[in-house]
Design brief:
This protein is of the alpha/beta class and 253 residues long. The protein has one domain: EAL domain (TIM Barrel, Alpha-Beta Barrel). 42% of the residues lie in helices and 18% in strands. The chain has helices spanning 10-15, 49-58, 62-76, 92-95, 99-105, 127-140, 153-162, 171-174, 181-197, 209-218, 235-242; strands at 19-27, 33-41, 85-90, 114-118, 143-149, 166-169, 200-203, 222-223. Helix 2 runs antiparallel to helix 3 (62-76).
């Protein structure tokens, strides 16, 4: 059956009518920015990014839109300082696409500064194929992350099958971790698990000073969230992260 090229998606792919917001990721020990997560935005659309990607998937253009978003993020990343890594969200389908290694290799961002976050948007039919597809990226120096750990079975399966360099602990685990013994137990277990497989553990969605203090005391490597910095399209915000200056005290954020 022919692919329907819906008018909602085709201009985004052909004209690149999208942009990138970056959200900083901070070292919890040194309190300096060590990376950013690239988040796709669709200016003036009035719809969420997830809706746009779902629309593209529904007409067979999901991979193409993700690749345009990736190129946009890597182009924008040229304005960031060289000590910041750039994490990009990619579905398993895009990780399997033959165009991905060349795109990453020939970008102006060195592969060693790129982190591929494997998302849960699509189910993984066969992990052996996905692992093989990621090997060339790893050989270039690209790091692999699993996003939303703790939010569902699929993310944990990703961790066990893909042996990621980074594990991003979901906001559902971090929210209220300072007062919830169950969340504290899970967080402590994930710190030990990550150490056991040699992965860096990143706490996502830190929104309070108490959450920040707790995950830091637990020994999590890095953190991300509104307390530490919101996603921004503004290059002036990016330049502040470029300086590597310590984060403000939580009460000043």
């Amino acid at each position: 059956m022919p692919i329907r090229t819906d008018g909602r998606c085709k201009p985004l792919i052909e004209e690149g009518n999208l942009s990138t917001a970056f959200q900083p990721v901070w070292s919890l020990s040194s309190r300096i920015p060590i990376g950013v997560e690239a988040l796709t935005r669709f200016p003036g659309s009035g719809k969420s990014p997830d809706t746009h990607f779902a629309d593209a998937d529904s007409v067979g253009l999901g991979i193409e839109l993700e690749l345009v978003a990736l190129r946009t993020a890597l182009d924008a990343g040229r304005e960031l300082a060289g000590h910041l890594y750039i994490a990009v969200n990619l579905s398993p389908d895009v990780c399997l696409d033959a165009k991905l290694p060349e795109l990453l290799c020939h970008s102006q961002i060195p592969p060693g500064r790129i982190v591929v976050e494997v998302t849960e948007r699509h189910a993984v039919a066969e992990y052996a194929s996905l692992s093989r597809a990621l090997e060339p990226l790893r050989s270039f120096g690209v790091r692999i992350a699993v996003d939303d750990a703790g939010a569902g079975f699929a993310s944990m399966r990703h961790i066990l099958e893909l042996a990621p360099d980074m594990i991003k602990l979901d906001r559902d685990v971090i929210a209220g971790i300072d007062t919830d013994p169950a969340r504290q137990a899970l967080g402590t277990a994930m710190v030990g698990f990550a150490a056991g497989i040699g992965a860096q553990l990143v706490a996502e969605g830190i929104e309070t000073a108490e959450e920040l203090a707790t995950v830091t005391e637990m020994g999590m490597h890095a953190g991300q969230g509104y307390l530490l910095g919101r996603p921004s399209l503004n290059s002036h915000d990016w330049s502040r992260w470029n300086t590597g200056k310590p984060a403000a005290r939580p009460e000043d954020c």
